[in-house]
């Protein structure tokens, strides 16, 4: 008889794992609490406008392409991907200075030389050395890490000299560039992990390299097309995806999971359960208190979590002559990052990001209009911020900042529809403390020290998504799906 596997959560992690399992002949059923697939990568519909809830770009699309081809499917039959060139524009000094990033290496080097004389050589060196670093790190990101002795494996030992151990991301970039703005331009990607560049391990210099080497990509219809494509693929392969079907509890026989209890009260038995829901939220809600030791509630609360994000989705009745992705740095960026990640307070002088996808994608807004997405990185809910009070105040400041620091002059008058989404809303969605990028990516919370793909505390329970190894961000989440599916199918003996 076919092995039966339940997957909890139709986020990118859960869906990617379910798709691989379905493609390998496993009888797989996905249970999703919400009415839509995608989780943090879902579609937001406000009036006639569509937005992405969270992710706005795909990096290293070949990882997703490979998931599809590994089970005989072609990603491009399911969605249309566009590479962006230029990738994004960065604004400094209250919007007075700007710097545009391209994947064209000659143009990029020239732009660096023009704006930051003497730094072009650093860019060449950065690209060459990070290519070697990524080559060494990739095998670690693609392999399970569930034993301490894994640190002695050849893949880790050969990577060690390139891991920049003991150095922060900011320190590493200081080896290449003399300009602070240039260092920020190649380290702000620490925010993708919800971390500070001054705290983020230096090994993560591969993040900006990955953008410069592989580009940033936009699926027509938005990033939510990726989970929708995976749902379609699962169903094409005979798997099932149930929406509005939250899981209330794991069925446990001691430490062994034998199925799930749905919020409807239905008990369904399975051979294995994959948890794709936010890890900390799932352990606190789906497992009775007292069962877990290493990942008990008090121990989870002692871990470090990523920052959160404050979001505005604005449907505006005009087109703006502004790039697809723009980032606006606080004047005192280091202070802003410290307030967001360490002192957990709202910065007066804040950074923000705006996506303007309607310049290349006409499916998101009515003709001549635009769907604008604004993100402000803010502290997670381990802060004492009252978002019922702070949300409207921050919305006001963001609209003022758009007017003063960005090309979006006159945006407020053009708003037809809008939605505000705060850390409280992320938390209500099932994101632990609204920490949108999961458990932090400090070395003490990575690899062996991150929750294992085959969950170490419960039998027949597996993890996938940003809370397990290798970590947050779609390319790594897709790798987690592959590692977990490999563990499952290896264990249940289904031929690949
Ligand atoms: C604002 C923001 C911007 C981001 N930008 C990018 C980007 O541009 N590029 C990138 O690569 N990454 C980005 N990320 C990071 C990451 O790719 C996404 O957060 C991704 O969606 C995480 O996937 P996941 O599968 O781990 O979890 P989720 O997307 O959170 O999916 C978990 C799913 O589980 C469901 N669930 C929870 N509990 C239950 C239950 N009890 N029963 C049933 N279902 C349940 C949830 O409803 C959800 O659908 C961004 C994240 C955020 C928040």
From TrEMBL:
Keywords for this entry?
Carotenoid biosynthesis, Oxidoreductase
Amine oxidase domain residues are 13-487
Q: Which pathway features in its UniProt record?
A: Carotenoid biosynthesis
Q: Name one Pfam family in it.
A: Amino_oxidase
Source superkingdom = Bacteria
Its GO biological process terms? carotenoid biosynthetic process
Q: Which GO terms describe its molecular function?
A: 4,4'-diapophytoene desaturase (4,4'-diaponeurosporene-forming)
**Oxidoreductase listed as a keyword:** yes
- The EC number on file is 1.3.8.2
Q: Which family does the record assign?
A: Belongs to the carotenoid/retinoid oxidoreductase family. CrtN subfamily.
UniProt-recorded name of the protein: 4,4'-diapophytoene desaturase (4,4'-diapolycopene-forming)
Which species is this UniProt entry from? Exiguobacterium oxidotolerans
Q: Which gene encodes it?
A: crtN
């Amino acid at each position: 008889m076919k092995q039966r596997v339940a997957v909890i959560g139709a986020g990118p992690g859960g869906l990617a794992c379910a798709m691989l399992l379905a493609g390998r002949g496993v009888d797989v059923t996905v249970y999703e609490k919400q009415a839509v697939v995608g989780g943090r990568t879902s579609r937001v519909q406000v009036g006639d406008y569509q937005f992405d809830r969270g992710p706005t770009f795909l990096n290293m699309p070949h990882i997703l392409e490979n998931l599809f081809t590994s089970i005989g499917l072609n990603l491009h039959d399911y969605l249309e991907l566009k590479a962006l060139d230029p990738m994004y524009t960065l604004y400094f000094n209250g919007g007075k200075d700007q710097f545009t990033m391209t994947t064209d290496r000659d143009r990029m080097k020239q732009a660096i030389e023009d704006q930051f004389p003497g730094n072009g050589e650093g860019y060449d060196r950065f690209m060459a050395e990070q290519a070697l670093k990524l080559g060494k790190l990739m095998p670690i990101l693609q392999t399970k890490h569930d034993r301490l002795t894994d640190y002695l494996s050849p893949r880790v030992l050969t990577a060690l000299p390139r891991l920049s151990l003991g150095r922060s991301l900011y320190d590493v970039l200081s080896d290449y560039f003399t300009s602070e703005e240039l260092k920020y331009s190649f380290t702000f990607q620490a925010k993708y992990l919800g971390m500070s560049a001054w705290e983020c391990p230096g090994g993560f210099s591969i993040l900006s390299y990955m953008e410069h080497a592989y580009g940033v990509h936009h699926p027509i219809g938005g990033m939510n097309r990726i989970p929708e494509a995976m749902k379609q693929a699962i169903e094409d392969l005979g798997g099932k995806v149930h929406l509005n079907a939250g899981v209330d509890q794991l069925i446990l026989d001691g430490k062994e999971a034998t199925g799930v209890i749905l919020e409807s009260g239905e008990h369904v038995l399975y051979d294995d359960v994959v948890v794709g829901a936010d890890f900390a939220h799932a352990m606190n809600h789906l497992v009775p208190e007292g069962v877990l030791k290493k990942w008990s509630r008090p121990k989870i609360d002692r871990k470090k979590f990523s920052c959160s994000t404050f979001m505005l989705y604005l449907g505006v009745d005009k087109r703006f002559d502004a790039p697809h992705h723009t980032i606006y740095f606080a004047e005192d960026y280091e202070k802003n990052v410290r307030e967001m990640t360490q002192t957990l307070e709202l910065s007066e002088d804040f950074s923000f990001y705006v996506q303007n996808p309607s310049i290349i994608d006409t499916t998101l807004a009515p003709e001549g209009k635009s769907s604008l997405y604004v993100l402000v990185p803010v502290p997670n809910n381990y802060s004492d911020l009252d978002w019922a009070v702070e949300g409207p105040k921050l919305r006001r400041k963001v609209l003022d900042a758009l007017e003063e620091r960005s090309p979006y002059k006159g945006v407020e008058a053009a708003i037809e529809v809008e939605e505000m989404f705060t850390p409280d809303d992320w938390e209500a969605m099932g994101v632990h403390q609204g920490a949108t990028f999961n458990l932090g990516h400090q070395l003490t919370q990575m690899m062996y020290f991150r929750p294992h793909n085959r969950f170490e505390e419960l039998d027949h329970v597996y993890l996938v998504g940003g809370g397990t190894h290798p970590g947050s961000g779609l390319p790594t989440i897709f790798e987690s799906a592959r590692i977990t599916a490999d563990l499952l199918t290896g264990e249940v003996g289904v031929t690949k």
